[in-house]
Known about the structure:
The chain is 29% helix and 22% strand.
Amino acid sequence: MRFREYATYRPPQPRTSAVVDDQHRRLRDDIVCGIIGDDPAAPRACLYGEIRNDLYLDAFLLVVADDGKLEYRVERGAGSVEIERDLGLIAAHALEQLIDDPDGRLANGIFRAAVWAATTSPAGTRTSGLEWTATFDDTGGRPAAPGLAGLLPADRHLARSLARMLASPVDLAARRDFDEATDTAAALTGRPGARLGPATVLTPAGVVAALTGAEPGPGRSAGIAGLAVTGDWPADGAPTVTGAPVQHWHGLDWHLLF
Length: 258
């Protein structure tokens, strides 16, 4: 069952001040993340910024581990948490980056992880004041989402072929490659074949909406303030960290890519 959680309604409040003035404030020692683990070599990514909804700003932190774990944390400036829509906005952002560089592992992994989390239920949630956190764990045995959204999380090649097709939607060869990659992924997993519906808008936002079943809404957007990575990444498609500033967090050195 797709997960939705809405926090208790609160009357409209004045617009909160921008939280990205100090763009690294989310990487503080007192912000505990329960999915990072003890292996310093495991690749991980941390994305942070704002979810903007009309007059409100929600500061968010998304951490993706390399072992099927994800944590989404948000400081609510608005009256509700709309996790599917938030994760969909982040997935669309990552897909835009992947279209620019289809071979990049970082955007590929963030895109697939965000789609997975947006289409499954969390392993746990917690609330502390205005801060709300959801943790996702692939080891929980939850069934994969139906259709293409259930094939993407485990298939880097399928996400790459999707990005190449979206880079040029009129390229019939790219569309055939994507359809073949979809059929191959379905056959390998023993699941029914899945295709993008004919009504799908072939943009990052349109594809993510079709995958997650959640439209972001006209006043809702994601502002990405920073991206950090840690661990040893495979050579093919690894993020470039040479010269990047380093932030120490959770006993690890995180390279601040922007």
